Amino acid sequence: RHLRNIVIIQADVLAMPSRQCFDYAFSIGVLHHTSSPRGAFDSVVATLKEGGAVSAWVYGRENNGWIIYLLNPLRRHQTSRLPRGILGILAYAIAAPMFLILYCIYRPVGRFPQLAWLRRYLFYFDYLFFLTKIKFHEQALIIFDHLVPSIAEYIHRDDFARWFEENALEGIVLTSRAGNSWCGFGLRSASTQKHTD
């Protein structure tokens, strides 16, 4: 409120009210919770000025089979329907033993070179080691975040790459984060504007 050059707009990402007006647009953890992740991305790109840039982070389909086939059905049919208070208690109940496992096993294996050989035997190592760097409360919130949404899509890398390519973005950079999600960056050129208009 105290920043006069900031305007906050709440809108449907699939029907953005602004077009070609932003220098930079980003979406962190939103697109995969929409009814049309690709359509939402296209809508975000349409808000960029010529020379504007877009960044996006989505859940990856790769290395997430256990979530897709075990957690997703449970989330869709059970946990997304629970009252938020009960779901919060459940998230903390799951986080408590997970926190101990992460700090007693994953953290030492990730930090000490002598134990590096164990990494290949530990389930979901890259991501779970990443979680050792954050506090217990934040771990519980991440669990809550996985259990609460009614929609969660997991995007193949090749499909994510096509989102950028088919929007004629330039300077495309795609990277994996912790082996289970995708980050992407691209620039909108004058030719991109003609392609999307």
From TrEMBL:
<keyword id="KW-0812">Transmembrane</keyword>
<keyword id="KW-1133">Transmembrane helix</keyword>
<protein>
    <recommendedName>
        <fullName>Methyltransferase type 11 domain-containing protein</fullName>
    </recommendedName>
</protein>
<dbReference type="InterPro" id="IPR013216">
    <property type="entry name" value="Methyltransf_11"/>
</dbReference>
<dbReference type="Pfam" id="PF08241">
    <property type="entry name" value="Methyltransf_11"/>
</dbReference>
<dbReference type="GO" id="GO:0008757">
    <property type="term" value="F:S-adenosylmethionine-dependent methyltransferase activity"/>
</dbReference>
<feature type="domain" description="Methyltransferase type 11">
    <location>
        <begin position="6"/>
        <end position="54"/>
    </location>
</feature>
<keyword id="KW-0472">Membrane</keyword>
<dbReference type="InterPro" id="IPR029063">
    <property type="entry name" value="SAM-dependent_MTases_sf"/>
</dbReference>
<feature type="transmembrane region" description="Helical">
    <location>
        <begin position="85"/>
        <end position="106"/>
    </location>
</feature>
